[in-house]
Every structure is written in structure tokens, then in C-alpha cells.
Target: Carboxy-S-adenosyl-L-methionine synthase
Amino acid sequence: MHLDKISTMVDKVFKKSIIKQFEFDEEVASVFDDMLNRSVPFYKEMQRLSINFACNFLEENDKVYDLGCSTASTLIELSKHCKNNLKLIGIDNSSAMLNRASKKAKAFGVEIDLVNADLHDVSFDDAKLILSNYTLQFIRPLQREKLVKKIYDSLQNKGIFIFSEKVISSNSTLNKQSIDEYYEFKKTQGYSEFEISQKREALENVLIPYTEEENKKMILDAGFTHCETIFKWVNFATFIAIKK
Ligand SMILES: C[S@@+](CC[C@H](N)C(=O)[O-])C[C@H]1O[C@@H](n2cnc3c(N)ncnc32)[C@H](O)[C@@H]1O
Ligand SMILES: O=C(O)C(=O)C[C@]1(C(=O)O)C=C[C@@H](O)C=C1
Model:
């Protein structure tokens, strides 16, 4: 069975008037796979690249953590593509997401240790690889720097951190053009201007993006020796960081 077959519900969350801030609640979780595919440009390609780069570094019985694993799509794909046996741990603080993750993992026969916890409260001991796609952007800036330091400290020597983020530009003209380009992308994915503006408001002060340079600085300040952008589409970027 292909992963796309399992969650087919279409994202209509922002078709109605929304008064609350964006949350990873039951309603969002129930359509999340569709939401990501239609809201993150080249999501599948970014996931494929993250997994391919990850597999190059992984050896038998390595421990892999996915921080903000949502419905576990990435860990399931990783286990299908890596030839080695891995210890997979997915952490998320949304029960609605983890319920779906658990069902999907079972359906695909993939063993994943799913942990319902806040990323600030758990350790990621002895990790060879830590993945975190589009999650750091939801962590408050001061906490984010601390979390990245914890990620660095938790990795084995030569450990790898692969993460993706929505990014902004420090040039206001380019930033505006990038946002316009992104909203055009959303329209091609079937989202109306009303849905786009409602989601933008709901994400205000919830999703806090950094520039590409700020992300790299945060990584190097935490102690990583190398950080590189392996994929970028306008305001969405994927990075790989290496611990010496
Ligand atoms: C955009 S989604 C991540 C998508 C996922 N990585 C993927 O590629 O399928 C962000 C996830 O991070 C989780 N999250 C946000 N803040 C968190 C925190 N402080 N602790 C644990 N999980 C958190 C949310 O519940 C949500 O499932
Ligand atoms: O910025 C937006 O409008 C988005 O829809 C992006 C984004 C993300 O980058 O995580 C925001 C929330 C959802 O988790 C899915 C996609």
C-alpha cells in the first residue's frame, strides 16, 4: 500500500470563519497529510531528499528521532527506504496527530516508539540522526535556541540534524514578492483567497520564521561544525547540520 492512500480527507479547515489561533488539534490532524502536501511546496521532494541524505549516514540499529513527527509519514517512509534496521522515535505533543501516527505505523508494519510529549521536556539520547521538518518554526525564539542546543548535545559525534523551515528574507521587497509567490502556489493547490488569508491570520505569532542566515547562525552557535541548505523553494528551506 502507498502512504498517500491512507489519509484522503481534504483540508477545508479555513473555509469557514476562524477566530482562534492555529493549533494541531483534531480538526487539523484529520486532514493534515493533505494540508502539508498542498501547503508546503515540493513537500514530497523535500521528504525524499531528507530521507536519502539521512540514509547515507545511518548504520544498523542507529537511533533516529523525528521531532514534531505529526502523523509519522517521514519515519514510515524512512523505514521503507533505509536498508538498515533502525530504532525510530517520533515525538509530538498533539494526541490527535499521534493517534493517526499509531494507526499508520501499524498499517505499514513499521515499529515506531511514539512519545506524546513537549519537545522541551524530553531527551533525545544517543541519537545518530534527528529530523525535524517544519516544527522549529512553531517554537518560541528563545526556547528554539535552547532546543537546538539540546539537539546538538543529544547527537553522537558525527551525528546529523536534518530540518526544514518556512523562511523569510531580510530584504523587504524580496520578502513581499516571496509571500506573493507562495500565495500563488497555494491558489494552484485549490485554496481560495479567503482560506489563504484566514490561515495567515491564524498563524500570526504562532509560526515564527527566521531567515536562512538566522537558521544557520542558530545551528553554528549551538556547536554544529557545518550547516548547508540542501533544498529551497522561495520561502521553504531544508537544511542539514553535521556534528563533528
Ligand atoms: C508542521 S508539523 C510537522 C510536520 C511533520 N514533521 C511532517 O513532515 O510530516 C509540526 C508538528 O510539531 C508538533 N509540535 C509543535 N510544537 C511542539 C512542541 N513544543 N512539542 C512537541 N511537538 C510539537 C505539532 O503538534 C505538529 O504535529
Ligand atoms: O504558512 C502557511 O500558510 C502554511 O500553510 C505552512 C505550514 C507549515 O509550514 O507548517 C503551516 C501550518 C501547517 O502545519 C502546514 C503548513
Q: What stands out?
A: Residues 24, 36, 68-70, 73-74, 91-94, 97, 118-119, 133-135, 138-139 surround S-adenosylmethionine (ligand 1) (CB under 6 Å). The longest helix spans residues 172-188. The chain has one domain: 21-170+200-242. The domain at 21-170+200-242 is CATH 3.40.50.150 (Rossmann fold).
